[in-house]
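Quick question about two entries, pasted in order.
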Amino acid sequence: MEVVDRVVQAGRSKILLVVLDGIGGLPVKDGRTELELAKTPNLDRLARVSATGLHIPVDYGITPGSGPGHLALFGYDPLDHQIGRGVLEALGLGLEVRDTDVAVRGNYATVDYRNGKPIVVDRRAGRIPTEENRRLTKKIGDEIKSIDGVEVMVAPGMEHRIAVLFRFPEPLPEGSDRVTDTDPQAVGREPLDPSGLTPQAERVARVAKEFVNRVAKILREEERANFLLLRGFSQKPKLKTMYERFGIRSCCIAVYPMYRGLASLVGMEVIDFEGSSIEDQIRVLKKVWEDYDFFFLHIKKTDSYGEDGNWEAKVRVIEEFDRLLPEILELKPDVLAITGDHSTPSLLKGHSWHPVPLLIYSNYVLGGTSSRFTERECLKGEIGIIPAKKIMNLLLANALRLKKFGA
């Protein structure tokens, strides 16, 4: 048991965690990062009266995925609780994941058939519209109900993403999800066959291979999304909820399924809402403000544009959030944290190992150490550089929800 679990006490304070996905960056113009290039008067004003620092999502030099990055922010050691992407995607799309299930995340892809063999030319099928995804996923779901006695369920995600659930007739032993991805991770290559890395995973691999073959026939005549690549085979983990650990009623306001799925795994109530803009998310936040103690607000596009190498667009999203920040502050959270789950420098077009800027505002911080919310300014802050899994300790402490340890 973590020490924080032992000293939690009840309270009425409200904690808001805003995750600007992939917010950290590297210099992209005139020696400045995306945060340094952005005009952020509201964030900078807040930084001047907040505790600031940087956090390490997993470990020094380790580039984290989104799952480990968020799990750490919620106070769980990502090295002790490794969660597969398939489970996150399935939960986020509303599929119930049981002990009998293996979940997989799929990407619609474009292949060329050369000498009868598929060769990947676009791993994301041009990021097809979500409506097109729904049509294709319904087609697959209507034609494939089961394989060798294993129930098959599919759910459309956003753009090219899809969740697949293989439901076996009996609970699966640990290690049944040790199946290799079919995504070759590069264009110009053949999709890979799924392979079981443990004896108990071999049956799952056989079912997955048959599923991929059937889907290929169903999609063969499609113009763009004519193949399906599978990634992240995973089983449902066993985690204590945030209420069980910290005594807080928590909720998630996120657009993308994976983050909604991760939040549900730790017991957050996932709020459904219409729209996908930051304004829409803040509107929902205001609506549910009286109902919970802890609020997780996830903003995706900072990461998406970083992965695209589009630093100008990433700057624009940062500036959009800054413009809307006063609406969040009007709610008067007792503790407000703003950070990212990892860094996604546009320079690298992907996640990176670099420390992530962190800001914590409450009535109980020193403040006055940073003039802006940027990587270099946060380095000057009172928090220093800390493991991400310790951020929840600080949020609870600033919310006066931790009692003294020992006599």
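Here is the second entry:
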Amino acid sequence: MANGAPVQPARESSTAHERRPLIDRLIPEELLEDHELRFRSRVLITVSLTISGLLVPVVIVRATTMRSDAGLTSLVLTVIVSLALPALLRLTRSHLIPSYTLLSLTLVAFFLAERALGAFPVPALLYYTMAPLLAGFLIGSRAALLFGALVAIEGTVMYRLLPPASGPLIEDLAPTFWMILLSGIVMTTLLTLAYELNRRRALDRAHATAEELRETNHALTHARARAEDANLAKSDFLARMSHELRTPLNAIIGYAELLAEDFGAEQDEHGEDARRIAHAGKHLLELINEVLDLSKVEAGELEIRPAEIELADFIESLRGTVEPLARRGGNTFSIELADGLTRVRSDPLRLRQILLNLLGNACKFTERGRVVLAIAPDPDDPAWLLLSVHDTGIGMTEEQLSRAFEPFVQVSVDPALRRTGTGLGLALTRRLSALLGGAVTATSRVDVGSSFTVRLPATTAPPLRTPSGTPS
């Protein structure tokens, strides 16, 4: 069975080759893969074989009715070269060289025929109109213009050089004239049919592609609607669950703190257990609040309340919260405030939440290092404020940094650190920054540290309520 497996594709390929139209077997594979090149190659082969087929009787009539070695030679040469063009196509694997050869041969044949007869016009004059038409089908519009100009110049020159045909010469040319007229009609008809067939096929492909696009867009629209419904349902579920969990959790924290106070004087293990319960409850409450805030942002229900913020008081409040976190990891924490910067207008609650998320992460992923909060106007535009958090922690790789702002994603390589959060801090920070009218960016290097910068308007008040579909 294994030995016979590769044979089947070869059979299918052979069958497909046998079913291929005869004219396509004369065309190189690389030209068949392109619809336009395949069409032009088919026209080239059809025209070359048709010319050779139609000129054979012309050669016979010409040889029996008149004696002109140069004219007869040009016709025979045209037949031979026309028959050789399909082989030239396969040899060069390009339709351009055979096409230019055919068109140039046509002009040379006209010239030789007229010179041999010594009069103007001759029956071959009908093919003068075919040259730009053939050039357009075989090569393109520029070639049509080029060969249209060339036949016009050649016809004008021959008209000036040669006397008009008259008398016995016209009677002698009559049989040849009718044969060439018939072949010209056939050639024009074939080219017109080829163009119409190719146009219809192109329209059919365009209609089929348009129908596929409509069906795909319809499916994508339904999929997007279902995804939005699912996202809203998820956000609603998280908001309800978070609210229901916070009520009993607040009671647990309250009772644990009361027990810790009651046992505090005794310094026994019961007091320590109560303090652990209170600490764990507060940590769990913070996680629930993050989930609730993120669900409100996604549902477009988070309110923004802008107000004037005195930076001195705001920074001292932050310092009191962050310094214990920094000392826990043996870190130093410092705040750098630009001179002359005293107040900004924003939502103090959400701004504090953004900075605590960034500073908390910096303290968590840094050990015996430095954590710095820098607040300064944007040097490129003083109307904007830059709030940067720098640390000398473990840092992140490029791949980790690209996923750091995704919800529920924790990029730390330390399993113990991954268990201490939900992975919502940076995702919520990004969304809150957007709601305040700004954005957050980050840079990081492994074992060097990370820098997160929030760019916010310093004076512009954001909207009072978040719009639905806030960019994330």
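Reply: The first helix runs from residue 7 to 19. The radius of gyration is 42 Å. Hope that helps.
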